[in-house]
Amino acid sequence: MSDILNDIADAVEALCAGRQHSEPRWEWDANRHRKPLDPYRTIVPGLIQQLREIAEEGATNTNDSGVHSVPESSPPGAFDAVALIAAITFGAAWRVSWARDARSVDITVRDTPEANLSAIVGVLNRIDSEAQRDIRAEVRSWQRQAEVLTGWTQPPIELVAPCPVVDSDGHGTPCGARGTLLAQRDGSGARCLACGAQWDETTVGLLLAHVQRYTEASKAAAEKVRLKVRAEKEAARDREAEARRRRRSAA
Q1: In 111-203, which residue ranges form alpha helices assigned H by DSSP?
Q2: Among the listed residues 41, 44, 43, 47, the one whose alpha carbon sits nearest the alpha carbon of residue 10
Q3: Tally of CB atoms within 10 A around 225
Q4: What is the domain partition of the chain in residue ranges?
Q5: Which pTM was predicted?
Q6: Which residues are bridge partners to 21 per DSSP?
Q7: Which among 19, 146, 236, 242 would be 20 to 30 A from 164, CA to CA?
Q8: Helix (H) or strand (E) segment spanning residue 231
């Protein structure tokens, strides 16, 4: 399988399939040394099912052994989970319909988003590479959002720089939006919320270099302003001192 197909399969597996989760345990011996114990192991459901549980209960779940089925961090709330489930459900069903109608693939819409996503994975080799890239972006986005809502990962970092995209609409209009650049914490990608531009593992370095240049230029400009203000204050103090001297001489 190509990298794109592997990426899609991995994201769909995270969304749909259960997996084993281990939580480390420790104890202190008589010499006050920390010793590792066998970790707690539990099977956690796929991210979509975890979202359902958050939507239904508005809190993380605990199984019979007292082990949390998702991390202990509090989810942002049931509303966000409901909204993301709706987006995944609609998006997965739409992709199945699109593959059937636009690409003449023998496939039908299923009853659940998990089934529709699995069906899409099964026919990826009959879909062109451009559409595969679009599907990868979709399922990765759903996976990232679900991991944040369920507490498995932290939200992306906001990059303090304007968007560098020079043609945001196909007519040469630069984006330049501020406060809209979000980067994954592992450096695997970034996106602009304003114009929709995305950077993957191969191009995110260019964006980070842009942010670094902007940060250095901003620091230089701020230092220039700081020095100017300091010089103006010193000049004002000198004028004040000279005025006092003149008053004393006149007296």
Answers
A1: 113-122, 129-149
A2: 47
A3: 10
A4: 3-149, 156-251
A5: 0.62
A6: 42
A7: 146
A8: helix 204-250
